[in-house]
Design a protein that fits this description.
32 strands, single chain, globular, seven-stranded antiparallel beta sheet, 24% strand, alpha+beta, ten-stranded mixed beta sheet
């Protein structure tokens, strides 16, 4: 585990509970039952221990019959300890509860050694198992959980570090017993079972999937089967890491709400699940964890001392600005900006005070940089050179982005003086960025894909140098044949390529199957996102077990590119909450795509396909909204309206459509079927 982390009790060693039950009686009366010093407890029950990381120990022989029924005799129980020094603020749960949302049956079982049985759920998942067993009183059955198997078919657990992920049960004996833990969860695909009296049946075990039960809102498929599978892998990874906080990974001895990961993933997260309530809840944790001097934490909740450690890191801390803005863009809720405004201004003021020249050189905390970029990969023939973006360039770009967002926040919140001030500050940071990092004609110091992606995404190079910077980004990818970007920049690289007429290159790199790529992981059995491109490489084996999750969502940020640039459903930043948006498919090597997004205003659909030299697009625009529909017209053909049809008629005769440019129409709510000759240039 990282230096400075405790090995146990990350979230505290003395959990406390306050309970209150309000009862309306049929007679019209009302009673309140609250936890106080009349409550009683016992340590003699069947749950001997239960730990978030280690798992649960349960002794069925100690079950207390009737403990949860009226008239139970609890005289032998002890009084509870009252935490009189605690006066917590009581608030209702702000987001959906954590629930069991589905069950998964195993697809296979093997016996790598005598009486050791390994179940394969076929899906890397998070939750726990329920298992039917039979045995004598006192028999001990253990379920050990892991994400991968080793070369001998045995459970691989080295990457769990200090998290045991073991549920141990002592049987009460006699009839069938159903084993299931109560206060833990695990990240796993494989379950090793030991201690059984006989070989189990495949159907004796079931995986129970557990996560914050936010509504799923996104659908994606396309002509490339790997990308279609990738969307599902991203969704499974999101389920795995949505546990009232956005965790980094669900299996090893960590499971913290790392800020940098969700900063990159937030737009994709909102396209897959309705996270309006979730973000509202978690951003309160972020504000609570902010240091007194304005530094945002590396993770939230922050169980240590935010004033002393794990605070103030570029990109990680900037999530305190980026995520509220992303949530506002998705849901149009000003309240999330109002709640975050003071903390945003304190963060920016702290960075500025530490770096008066506006290049973020000083006070960068643990300074993770573009985490897990190409310089961290280990594989035969892979060069680490030219992957690691200079950290001061990276930090300054993030500083500029946060200031730019703060200016936009101020405009939404009707704070014109603050907006003007942040606009000026952004321009000054941009000037400092160019002075410090722009060498010549779009060349940035370090000459990295990540540097160009950030400069383009955050508008940090002057107009004359933007085309050169874009070409350097494209050339760098073409020369390497792969992305060398890390968790914070990969999605920006793809988005910038597609926005600037390099969509075919973006598709080519996204659809790769050779190392390193999303397809490489899927071809090697991935059913969720790997933390590292080289988490496992045939012939070499596993990467550094110290940090090698196989269920880690940051590189899943490609989902934003898939929905926006492939399916063609693009938000309009000037119309938050999807009141207005754009449908702009980009056909090419991908010949069909369908995206569905259940926005807060209704169902949005972009379903397109290429048939010979014709392009077909079916769209659905929800009530109360409007959209631009941009078609890939063959502009070399007859520009007459008959080239484009909507339904069965020329588009010029279709009611409710307004042409805004040569290839774009504005449409209102409804369903439309467009057809045109395809631009093959």
């Amino acid at each position: 585990i990282m230096p400075g982390f405790p090995t146990r009790g990350i979230y505290g060693r003395r959990p406390c509970v306050f309970a209150e039950l309000s009862v309306d009686l049929a007679s019209g009366g009302h009673i309140t039952i609250a936890s106080d010093d009349t409550w009683r407890s016992t340590l003699e029950g069947p749950i001997r221990s239960s730990d978030l990381l280690d798992g649960e120990v349960y002794d069925g022989r100690r079950e207390l019959a009737g403990w949860d029924a009226p008239e139970f005799d609890d005289k032998a129980w002890a009084g509870v300890e009252i935490a009189r020094d605690l006066r917590p603020k009581r608030e209702p749960e702000r987001c959906e509860p954590i629930r069991v949302t589905r069950e998964i049956a195993p697809i296979a079982m093997n016996e790598p050694s005598p009486n050791v049985f390994v179940f394969d759920l076929g899906q890397n998942m998070v939750g726990w198992c329920r298992m039917k067993v039979r045995g004598g009183a006192g028999a001990q059955v253990k379920l050990r959980h892991g994400e991968m198997l080793d070369e001998n078919g045995a459970l691989y657990t080295a990457n769990l570090r200090g998290a045991a992920q073991i549920d141990a049960f002592t049987l009460r004996g006699g009839a069938d017993e159903f084993l299931e833990p109560h206060f833990t969860y695990h990240g796993f695909r494989y379950v090793e079972v030991t201690g059984l009296a006989s070989k189990p049946a495949l159907g004796d075990l079931v995986g129970r999937v557990v996560h914050t039960a936010a509504r799923e809102v996104g659908e994606f498929e396309c002509s490339d089967p790997m990308l279609t599978k990738l969307w599902q892998n991203i969704l499974w990874t999101q389920r795995a890491n949505l546990m009232s906080v956005p965790t980094d990974c669900p299996q090893r001895d960590e499971r913290l709400g790392w800020m940098g990961d969700i900063q990159a993933f937030a737009p994709t997260a909102s396209l897959q699940m309705d996270l309006g309530a979730f973000f509202g809840k978690w951003l309160a944790d972020v504000r609570d964890a902010q240091a007194a001097d304005g530094r945002f934490p590396d993770f939230a909740p922050h169980p240590f001392e935010p004033d002393q450690r794990f605070s103030g890191v570029p990109a990680w801390g900037d999530a305190g600005v980026v995520v509220p803005w992303s949530a506002y863009q998705s849901y149009g809720d000003r309240a999330v900006l109002e709640a975050s405004w003071d903390s945003v201004t304190r963060w920016i003021a702290w960075i500025r005070a530490k770096n008066p020249e506006l290049v973020w050189r000083n006070a960068r905390g643990n300074d993770y940089g573009d985490w897990l970029n190409g310089s961290t990969l280990v594989a035969e023939g892979w060069s680490k050179e030219g992957s690691d973006v200079p950290k001061d360039l990276f930090a300054t770009a993030m500083f500029a982005r946060s200031v730019g967002i703060a200016a936009d926040m101020a405009r939404v919140l009707e704070k014109p003086e603050a907006a003007r001030g942040y606009d000026v500050l952004y321009r000054d940071i941009k000037s400092a960025f160019c002075r410090e990092f722009l060498v010549e004609d779009g060349l940035l110091r370090g000459d990295t894909q990540a540097g160009y992606a950030l400069a383009l995404a955050f508008d940090l190079v002057p107009g004359g140098a933007q085309r050169s910077a874009l070409e350097r980004l494209a050339r760098g990818i073409e020369e390497r044949g792969a992305l060398t970007t890390g968790m914070m920049t990969t999605h920006h690289a793809l988005l910038e390529l597609s926005r600037a007429d390099h969509h075919e290159l973006a598709c080519a790199v996204a659809m790769r199957h050779d190392f390193p790529s999303w397809g490489f992981a899927i071809d090697n059995g991935a059913t969720t996102l790997w933390e590292r491109w080289d988490g496992f490489v045939a012939g070499r084996g596993f990467q550094d077990a110290g940090m090698n999750s196989f269920n880690h969502w940051a590189f899943g940020s490609i989902g934003e590119w898939m929905m926006r640039m492939v399916a063609g459903i693009e938000p309009d930043e000037k119309s938050p909450g999807w009141s207005h948006f754009t449908i702009r498919p980009r056909p090419g090597v991908i010949t069909h795509a369908r995206g569905v997004y259940h926005s807060i205003r209704g169902r949005i659909v972009s379903d397109w396909r290429v048939e010979s030299d014709e392009f077909h697009l079916d769209v659905e625009i929800p009530t109360g909204t409007s959209a631009f529909v941009q078609l890939p017209l063959d502009l070399t053909s007859d520009p007459d309206d008959n080239v484009v049809t909507e339904g069965a008629q020329p588009i010029g005769k279709a009611p409710g459509l307004r042409r805004v440019s040569v290839d774009t129409w504005e449409v209102g709510a409804g369903r439309y079927q467009f057809k045109c000759k395809l631009d093959r240039r």
